[in-house]
Amino acid sequence: MPELAEVETVARGLRAIAGCRITGVRFGKTDFIHQPARLEALLPGSLIAEIRRHGKLLLIGCDRPPGETLALRSPGKPAPVVAKSWQAPGCTGTSSTCRYGDGAAGPARLWLMVHLGMTGQLLLDDPAGPVAPHTHAWFALDDGRELRYVDIRRFGRLRVATPAELASLLAPLGAEPLELPRAEFRRRLGSRRAGLKALLLDQHVLRGLGNIYADESLWRARLHPLRLGSDLSVAELDRLWRSIRRVASEAIRRRGTSIANYVDTQGRPGTFQRFLRVYQRTGRPCPRCHAAIERAIIAGRSSHFCPRCQRRGLAPSRARKPAGSKGVQPAHPSGGRRRKGGAPKRHSGF
Question: Does the predicted model carry a pTM greater than 0.85?
Answer without folding.
Answer: no
